[in-house]
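Minutes, structural biology subgroup

Action item carried over from last meeting: produce the structure token record for Phosphopantothenoylcysteine decarboxylase / phosphopantothenate--cysteine ligase (Anaerocolumna xylanovorans DSM 12503). EB confirmed the sequence was re-checked against the source entry. Recorded below for completeness.
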Amino acid sequence: MREILLGITGSIAAYKAADIANQLTRSNMAVHTIMTKSATRFITPLTIQTLTKNRVYTDMFEEVYYPDVRHISLAQKVDCCVIAPATANIIGKIASGIADDMLSTVVMAIKNKPVIICPAMNTAMYENPVTQNNIKKLESYGYRFVEPKESLLACGDIGKGALADVDVIITAIKEAIGEI
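Output recorded by EB:
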């Protein structure tokens, strides 16, 4: 069974992560999920936990005993990591080497495994030169991106920045782990 790490960040598109988790689970993949604090404001960990039948991690410093170093063991056990939706914040953190929460710390500990980043944000934020430079930097390190689509955004703007369709993200994951 393939092990997938699903990172969910604080975007209105976080609700689509439930469909991603559900489809991966139905494809006989074990889905381990990390949600940023802001992601939990858009969708609850219980929703994802119910769909994946696995614990959802939200706090790097939760006082629960683990016989291992959780952020390292998660990084080692998964076959692929997908961050969907990925905000400009998480993209900037990873590009800058900042590991200050459970998701960014685990991503920084992943070696020789695909990390797929699926941006979702306002068009101006996505097209901002800082965001674009961070994306180019991460691509040069081997991180993979699933381009956002052009759509009506939550703010009312029409432009590029909406999370890619779930089936496109699932296909990218399957390609990354050699299942297509």
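Discussion: Residues 17 and 77 are 21 Å apart (CA to CA).
Next step: EB to file the record with the rest of the batch.
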